[in-house]
Amino acid sequence: MQLVIMPLxxxxxxxxxxxxxxxxxxxxxxxxYFFKSHLLLMFLLIITVYKNPKIALILGVLFGVxxxxxxxxxxxxxxxxxxxxxxxxxxxxxxxxKDLKMMIVLFLxxxxxxxxxxxxxxxxxxxxHIGYFTFIWTHVLPSLLINFILIILVFPFILRxxxxxxx
Length: 167
Hints:
Elements: H1 2-22, E1 26-28, E2 31-33, H2 39-50, H3 53-71, H4 77-92, H5 100-124, H6 132-165
Antiparallel strand pairs: 1-2
Helix pairs in contact: 1-2, 2-3, 2-4, 2-6, 3-4, 4-5, 5-6
């Protein structure tokens, strides 16, 4: 059952990410703000902590490649970003207690790291067309806000599904 449910949830969250991300940017007072959701990344981190890091790595590689091909920016960003996040989360929760508040803080921290990783790669390749502080103001802070809301809404639901169907 776990071989069907977890990839299915990941696929649904991948498409939810795509749908949510397709409605942005929002222009407020002449500035475009990008609220980028990372539901799939959060799901992979949930699997890493609460189920099995090996399964999370397999799903991370699979959906990292799918994300790279689907979004078509620079191949490997999502793949390596997911793998690094999963490995770091696995190591961190050998130290930290699996508390809900700690999970939320770490989710937001990993989203912050992932956004910076994405910008850093674009900046190194000379593709980033905005300055760092503009990036923080228009991409990182809105993304942290939307993902905090999504964590509060989606996290308990995902945990219930995993507890019920994945043993």
